[in-house]
Write a structure and sequence with these properties.
Distance between the termini: 74 Å
Oligomer: single chain
Number of domains: 2
Shape: globular
Strand order of the largest sheet: 9-8-7-6-10
Number of helices: 3
Structural class: alpha+beta
Radius of gyration: 21 Å
Strand content: 25-35%
Order of helices and strands: EEHEHEEHEEEEE
Helix content: 10-25%
């Protein structure tokens, strides 16, 4: 009895969506810096962004691949410190254009209480019940009223919230 030739099975490649996290902002001397992290731990990178006072953007797919390729790869060390190198002003301007402008300076220190809240501090504010809570930067404080700007959406208009309607970020 002769065997029939069998067709070789071809595997269809499984497409994995690559997620790139970009940290960018100005260093303490006002020089632009940025780094990309591919498929890294988002929580760890978010902590690094807060510690360094940088903005964080997340992209999936290849829509802005040409710009992403220009950004140096970042590193997170076992100590929790990170490497976010300096970049050209042109690349920094391109990143700001993609995410919508400059949010202003973000403090690298966290307030210990609502009494300590001041311009530049990062808090978490409720957008609306459907969209949830998002990082926001304090732009102005007037008594118990805060003027805020969304950290990751700086092209959105400023908004006002009572001081007790924002969440403080945890101190380690």
């Amino acid at each position: 009895m002769t065997k029939k030739p069998t067709k070789a099975k071809t595997k269809t490649p499984t497409s994995k969506i690559t997620r790139t996290i970009v940290l960018f902002g100005l260093d303490e001397n006002g020089k632009p810096r940025a780094a990309r992290f591919v498929d890294d731990n988002e929580t760890l990178i978010a902590r690094l962004a807060q510690a360094l006072g940088l903005r964080m953007g997340i992209t999936t797919g290849s829509k802005h691949a040409d710009t992403l390729d220009e950004i140096p790869v970042g590193r997170v060390y076992a100590t929790g410190k990170g490497s976010v190198p300096n970049i050209s002003q042109d690349l920094y301007d391109k990143l700001n254009a993609l995410v919508g402008g400059e949010p202003g300076p973000i403090s690298t220190t966290l307030p210990k209480s609502w009494d300590d809240l001041a311009p530049g501090h990062l808090v978490v504010a409720l957008d609306n019940l459907a969209d949830g809570w998002w990082p926001a930067v304090v732009v102005k404080r007037d008594g118990d009223s805060l003027t805020l700007k969304w950290r990751d959406y700086p092209s959105q208009p400023e908004f006002i919230r009572p001081i007790t309607a924002v969440a403080l970020l945890k101190h380690d």
